[in-house]
Design a protein that fits this description.
Blueprint (H helix, E strand, L loop, with lengths): L2 H15 L6 H8 L13 H12 L1 H4 L10 H17 L4 H5 L7 H15 L4 H28 L13 H21 L1
Helix pairs in contact: 1-2, 1-3, 5-8, 5-9, 8-9
Length: 186
């Protein structure tokens, strides 16, 4: 058993039972070990959750970085869509990610993305706020989408309209990008 095996098993457990039901006791049972042996790899549950969040974000972390010829709007749109798709890959993916802090290679990627936005003519403060707003907007949308799915909203309740989550996400994202475009044009 190594750290990667523990994280993979924890993510499988997350997909089966949801974030609230993930416990080190259940994880140890799944791995066929005693609970204290998990602490060899992770000092506490928060450290495990942090490693799970990082591993769950791997598909987005390997998405292509912007190229100089890319248009900032097209790149930011696709980057945000990639982030959303990645969060949706895991049950409670947005809850797992919320509050996690980037580190190491993630910080390097964020720096490259910011440098691209600045080179594209976005003022520094607006570029920072755009990245922050797009990220938080995406997490919020996915939180609501995953909560609705868990509750079965729109399935058996004729009073509650069914929401096309992807269309709603795209509409809000367009508003963010349109606002940012006004700063670039100014």
């Amino acid at each position: 058993m190594n750290r990667e095996t523990v994280v993979a098993a924890a993510l499988d457990l997350l997909d089966e039972v949801g974030l609230d039901a993930v416990s080190t006791r259940q994880l140890a049972k799944r791995l066929g070990v005693e609970q204290p042996s998990l602490y060899y790899h992770f000092r506490n549950k928060n450290e495990l959750l942090s490693a799970m969040a990082e591993a769950a974000m791997a598909p987005h972390a390997t998405a292509p970085l912007p190229q100089p010829a890319d248009h900032w709007r097209d790149w930011l749109l696709e980057n945000t869509r990639s982030f959303r798709r990645t969060l949706l890959m895991r049950r409670d993916g947005a809850r797992l990610h919320a509050g996690s802090m980037p580190g190491g290679a993630d910080l390097d990627r964020i720096t490259r993305k910011m440098d691209f936005l600045l080179a594209s003519g976005l003022p520094e403060r607006e570029a920072q706020m755009a990245m922050l707003a797009a990220g938080r907007y995406t997490v919020g949308c996915v939180l609501e989408e995953q909560a609705d799915a868990d509750l079965g909203v729109g399935t058996e309740h004729p009073v509650v309209p069914t929401i096309d989550q992807e269309s709603a996400f795209e509409a809000g994202l367009a508003l963010i990008l349109d606002g940012l475009a006004q700063h670039v044009e100014a």
